[in-house]
């Protein structure tokens, strides 16, 4: 939806300081792809000089994180570092980005990774499957980061939560929703030892997201 609402990526010539309320202790940036801005380095250095906590609320593009960006990001006060890992073909970029961020001292428990699911491209007739989604969740938890599932909703939906991809079923989508409430924390899957082991040893998606009956 974002490209249709906001058009192509553009860079505003502004100073962050001009937009900070004197009594506020955190800077929240709502940029949809901050690292794609030609001014990213200039803005990061300004944020470093200001010294307040920074939240890139819409997430950082893992595909654009290199050694220099990771080093400069690590010097910011970030409560949560948000990334996205939306498809299998982003695995290499995800691994590279998280390794760089961890190497420069960002704690893995502070890295929250959005994981898209229930997506289907009607033009190319392709999308994520439940088992592919499980692989991505395991990859996120393997490096100690927090996985945050994000259910895809098409633009023409008339009612939230009704769309089911051809590669998914309503029961499997509901299984994720229940697992987030029962096994997760705040809708996310932190890298808790028991949760990591359950997902890693699962034979398939259904095995991973099966909830044990009470008393079992």
Please provide a brief summary of the model.
By secondary structure, the chain is α/β, with parallel strands linked by helices. It contains eight helices and eight strands, in the order H-E-H-E-H-E-E-H-E-E-E-H-E-H-H-H.
Textual characterization of the structure:
With 216 residues, the chain is of the alpha/beta class. The chain has one domain (25-208). It has helices at 2-6, 40-50, 67-74, 91-103, 130-142, 170-182, 193-201, 205-208, and strands spanning 26-29, 53-56, 77-78, 81-84, 111-117, 120-121, 126-127, 146-151. The strands form three sheets. The chain has a three-stranded parallel beta sheet with strand order 1-2-3, with no helix packed on it. A three-stranded parallel beta sheet has the order 4-5-8, with helices on one face. Strands 6-7 form a two-stranded antiparallel ribbon.
């Amino acid at each position: 939806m974002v490209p249709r609402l906001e058009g192509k990526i553009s860079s505003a010539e502004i100073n962050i300081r001009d937009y900070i309320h004197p009594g506020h202790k955190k800077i929240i940036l709502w940029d949809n792809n901050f690292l794609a801005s030609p001014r990213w380095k200039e803005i990061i250095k300004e944020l470093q000089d200001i010294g307040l906590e920074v939240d890139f609320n819409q997430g950082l593009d893992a595909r654009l994180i290199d050694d220099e960006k990771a080093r400069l990001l690590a010097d910011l006060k970030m409560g949560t570092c948000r990334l996205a890992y939306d498809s299998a073909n982003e695995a290499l970029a995800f691994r590279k980005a998280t390794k760089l961020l961890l190497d420069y001292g960002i704690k893995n428990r502070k890295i929250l990774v959005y994981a898209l699911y229930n997506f289907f491209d009607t033009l190319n007739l392709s999308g994520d499957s439940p088992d592919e989604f499980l692989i991505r969740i395991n990859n996120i938890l393997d490096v100690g980061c927090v996985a945050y599932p994000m259910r895809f909703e098409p633009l023409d939906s008339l009612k939230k939560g009704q769309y089911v991809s051809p590669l998914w079923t309503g029961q499997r989508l509901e299984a994720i929703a229940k697992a987030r409430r029962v096994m997760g924390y705040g809708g996310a899957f932190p890298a808790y030892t028991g949760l990591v082991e359950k997902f890693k040893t699962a034979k398939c998606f259904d095995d991973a997201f099966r909830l044990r009956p009470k008393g079992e």
